[in-house]
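Slack export, channel: ligand-projects

TW: morning all. Re-posting the request from yesterday since it got buried. We need the structure predicted with the small molecule present, not the apo form. The ligand is pyridoxal-5'-phosphate; the SMILES is in the block with the sequence. No rush, but it would help planning for next week.
GE: picking it up
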Amino acid sequence: MTNFSPSLSFAQQLDSQDPLASYREEFVITDPDLIYLDGNSLGRMPKVAQEKAKQVVEEEWGQDLIRGWNKGWWEAPARVGDKIGGLIGAAPGQTLVSDTVSLNLFKLATSALTLQPNRKRIITDTFNFPSDLYILQGISTLLDGRDAGSRDHEIIRIGATDDDITPDIAALESTINENTALVTLSHVVFKSGYLYDMQRITELAHAKGTLVLWDLSHSVGSVPVRLDDCNADFAIGCTYKYLNGGPGAPGFLYVNEKIQDKLTSPIWGWWGQKNPFDFDLDYKPAPGAQRFLVGTQPMLSLLTMEAALEPTLNVGMDAIRAKSILMTGYASFLTDTWLAPLGFSLGSPRDSAQRGSHISIRHADGYRINRALIEEMNVIPDFRAPDNIRLGFSSLYTSFVEIREGFDRIKRVIEEKRQEKYPKQKLTVT
Ligand SMILES: Cc1ncc(COP(=O)(O)O)c(C=O)c1O
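GE: finished. pasting the full token output, ligand included:
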């Protein structure tokens, strides 16, 4: 346990001892005064990705044209999937880059449910990202028929314990029964950053014969994940947060090889067909996880994202996690020391074993404070209703002096009442 101090010299000392400090130079930083604490939504741009984007456009698209498909484009979803697999504890052949997180959830959850037609219960939690909840609701409507008088599938959302931060694991355990087809959760939840114990939850579910699907959007690239060791069944995740893949970069899916060939994708596209260039008139699934591909992948974005993985792959997840724990611990300390007297509370777990790489600081006027930070303090966090200002820390480019300066500017907003000039009416994207 580090004894933190709020002094500038302490932050400078942490930076001077940081083995990853030099990686900041591998990112495009055009405004040194900007305090960027939103890498949990959109990571900064790695220089290697910027160069790759230029090369892909000028050479691969501009010169190779259609020949690119035989020069590595066609295999890209599996090749890049295996690289991501290395970050999430997945042996090759189980991870594919494809589509968006939401679409990957649709494909995998639908196939998990149709595999077990006699099990009707789906368990998730109230902390899950809303898109995940909507996708589950849509799937159950689709499977049961929109006009059915009574729905077959039942979606149960586990709530919080008294602290409003920690999921009620005892309730989760007692809700999983022999009728439960699927447990699906965000490994690190999007508001508080709570980190589930993947091994334990997966074991609880398997004990009842239930399949488990993990959304790794906030854990890939920030927390070590061991999908194969935990015997997880499915996972999905995104590449534009801690993997720095760029806005709208494609997502990924993981299917444990033990169940791949039992599954049917709900979307039969030609990229998931056994021999797409035979142009058969009837669909036959490709072997393994490949059947979950649908159509042509966005190559500019996918290849740029592949390059963006380099700093993460070079550093490795253990060093990333060690710095991340130190950063979230330091930020929690500054919240208690500087911000609690100004009306803030920490909206994230205090135990580092239970949190990812972002924290939420809660304040009744959080939305307007967040706007003042962005518009006049050159600090970029994000806001998640009703009262969470989310601060994300990337081990590859966030410095301790930057974190301290960010907290100092948050403190100044309140002390100078800067938030009061902003309307309560929210902008479209918060
Ligand atoms: C945890 C989580 N799941 C799912 C999504 C949705 O991802 P997409 O828009 O790529 O479908 C997000 C987006 O931020 C997310 O944070």
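GE: first-pass observations. The longest helix spans residues 317-339. The chain has a mean pLDDT of 96.
TW: perfect, thank you
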